[in-house]
Design goal:
The chain is an alpha+beta fold. Helix content is about 25%, strand content about 25%. The chain has a four-stranded antiparallel sheet. The relative contact order is 0.25.
Length: about 220
């Protein structure tokens, strides 16, 4: 049965978030480390690859008995996230900030801030200042993940694993400098629905179990 399930929700930034644009060049007067932005709108973006990679890392810490390479992950992780010889069941969309209108109504006209950081050389005591751009707290991003149904018997277990990863992320961080207070996020309003397949409703009970797992994440506010 060819089916796709759409998982939707909202990712809210709780503390300043930095996912870097990459590259070593910074214009004079600009932040040393800018955030990733959408090329069309210029608004901050969270790449789907960043969220997928973080969730897989957190899930691997829970499900793997030891630290291993990606292709040595537990079979259930590789089944869901993919491996060298198997495709991922999950498709993560890039996320662009979605509440600029709300921020502007609160007299906030830019979705980023500049955070000044210092590293100190322990031997010379010389400071090395740098400027890091962060997406401001209270920014929100629409979350969309497509789950490709492979085996009906695996759907609920896969959703429970994904829900575990999202719950772990709430107690961790997304992006860089998490140990310095960056990147705390909350994920709200998670739900799942068939967008392809299940026209006869045969899998409604399975979908109910999937949504039950997601509702438990919704209830677990940080």
């Amino acid at each position: 049965m060819f089916s796709k399930i759409l998982i939707s929700g909202e990712l809210e930034v709780v503390t300043g978030l930095h996912i870097g644009a990459g590259g070593d060049y910074a214009a004079i007067g600009a932040a040393d480390s800018p955030v990733t932005r959408d090329a069309v709108t210029g608004l901050p973006m969270i790449p789907g690859s960043s969220l997928k990679g973080k969730l897989r890392t957190l899930i691997a810490k829970k499900y793997n008995p030891t630290v291993v390479k990606h292709d040595q992950d537990a079979p259930e992780i590789k089944s869901l996230f993919g491996g060298m010889k198997s495709p991922s069941k999950l498709i993560f969309s890039d996320m662009i900030i979605s509440n600029m209108g709300e921020l502007k109504r609160n007299n906030i006209y830019t979705p980023t801030e500049i955070k000044f950081e210092n590293t100190i050389n322990r031997l010379s005591a010389v400071a090395n200042p740098r400027q890091i751009e962060r997406v401001i707290r209270q920014s929100k991003f629409d979350l969309e993940i497509i789950y490709n149904v492979d085996e009906e018997k695996d759907i609920v277990a896969d959703f429970k694993m994904l829900a575990d990863g999202i719950r772990l992320l709430k107690y961790d961080y997304l992006g860089g400098n998490g140990s310095r207070g960056y990147g705390k996020v909350n994920i709200h309003n998670l739900s799942a629905e068939f967008v392809i397949g299940n026209d006869d409703g045969e899998l409604d009970d399975i979908l109910d179990e999937c949504n039950k797992a997601l509702r438990e994440v919704n209830a677990d506010e940080v």
